[in-house]
Amino acid sequence: PVCRGPAASCPRGTNPGRTHRFYTGKPVVPFGFGLSYTSFTYKLHAAPPKVSLAHCAALLKRGSDGKPYFPSLVDVAAAGPAAVFAVNVTNTGIIDADDVVLGFLQPPGAGSNGVPLQSLFGFERVHVPARMTVTVWLYPTHTDFAIASEDGNRMPLAGVYTIRFGVKEAFPHGQGYAETKTVAYL
């Protein structure tokens, strides 16, 4: 529905579903899509089968006044990563080139009840000489495993997450792609 009033009077804002996190239509170009003069493959080197949400819950606990607490970036960084993922990036072509590895989380229940379809949790640009392999490490934070309720309270979301590296639609064009699953638990 179109909301013609000021943004504050629009129940779901002025652009619901118009980012890679919530867009359900067919995009002209998917978020993160890119091509190269060479080709790449991705292979998971390290991926945890489980992730504890205990630190996430502690970071998001309510304040003594009962109001939701939104941790600062300093607090989130001090908690360390929630998990460590390593991806081997192999340049299968004959030209030295850079590649940008994108890490996405697809939470349980993605696309329903306000849960995003995906979230970008990290990226890294690497130079990969022809016929060589470089390992990229990406680290989602504890709050990457949280969602916001309708009233704005953030909370950990337990369940099975799909972790994707790269953009699946670019894979047929010689670009790297890999995915795995991990269980987030309280």
Task: Give structural attributes.
186 residues, mainly beta, three-stranded antiparallel sheet, 2 helices, 10 strands, 35% strand, globular
Description of the structure:
- The longest helix is centred in the N-terminal third of the chain and has 6 residues, at 54-59.
- The protein has helices at 54-59, 73-78; strands at residues 40-46, 50-52, 85-91, 97-106, 119-128, 133-138, 146-148, 154-156, 159-166, 177-185.
- The strands form 3 sheets. It has a 5-stranded mixed beta sheet. A 3-stranded antiparallel beta sheet has the order 1-3-6, with no helix packed on it. A two-stranded antiparallel ribbon has the order 7-8.
- A hairpin with a 5-residue loop joins strand 7 (146-148) and strand 8.
- The chain is built from 2 helices and 10 strands.
- Helix content is 6%, strand content 35%.
- It has 186 residues and is mainly beta.
- It is globular, with a radius of gyration of 19 Å.
Would you spell out the secondary-structure blueprint of this structure?
Layout lengths: L39 E7 L3 E3 L1 H6 L13 H6 L6 E7 L5 E10 L12 E10 L4 E6 L7 E3 L5 E3 L2 E8 L10 E9 L1
Parallel strand pairs: 2-10
Antiparallel strand pairs: 1-3, 3-6, 4-5, 4-9, 7-8, 9-10
Briefly say what this structure is:
This protein has helices at residues 54-59, 73-78; strands at 40-46, 50-52, 85-91, 97-106, 119-128, 133-138, 146-148, 154-156, 159-166, 177-185.
